[in-house]
Amino acid sequence: MKWFLKLLLSALSVLLLANILPGIDVKSYTYAIWVALVIGVLNAILRPILIFLTLPATLVTLGMFLFVINACIILIASNFLSGFMVTSFWWALLFSIMLTFLQSLLHSVLKEDNQS
């Protein structure tokens, strides 16, 4: 049940950022759920491989290269889903940074609610 709530929060984050960033377009909340699901699956399967292959760059940049990896995953997700459009790598990178921040904020609020 907790993973479903995290999925809905991720979809909400995707939809919110799509409304803020002009280079990101999500057709509906249903597509936002699909985007969150596809990004989650790609993060589980593809991200560890990409991190391993780019480990030197990740170490040299003190982990900041992980945002580039996330941007690549977002671009791959936009190729899979017709209702999710990212116009350029730079928008994907900004979306990646803002999505990471927003999701960590929402998940920390969720943890505080569960602890009290």
What's the total count of β strands?
A: 2
**Amino- and carboxy-terminal Cα gap:** 18 Å
The coarse overall form would be globular
Please state the structural category: mainly alpha
The sequence of SSEs as H and E is HEHHHHEH
Number of helical runs?
6
Task: Please tell me the overall pLDDT.
Answer: 93
User: What's the structural domain tally?
Assistant: 1
The strand order across the widest sheet is 1-2
**Relative strand content:** 5-15%
Largest β-sheet summary: 2 strands, antiparallel
Helix percentage: over 70%
In the predicted model, the low-confidence regions spanning at least 5 consecutive residues are none
Which descriptors apply to this entry?
116 residues, mainly alpha, 79% helix
Give a verbal description of the structure.
By secondary structure, this protein is mainly α. It has one domain (2-115). Helix content is 79%, strand content 5%. The protein has six helices and two strands. The protein has a two-stranded antiparallel sheet with strand order 1-2. The chain is globular and about 40 Å long.
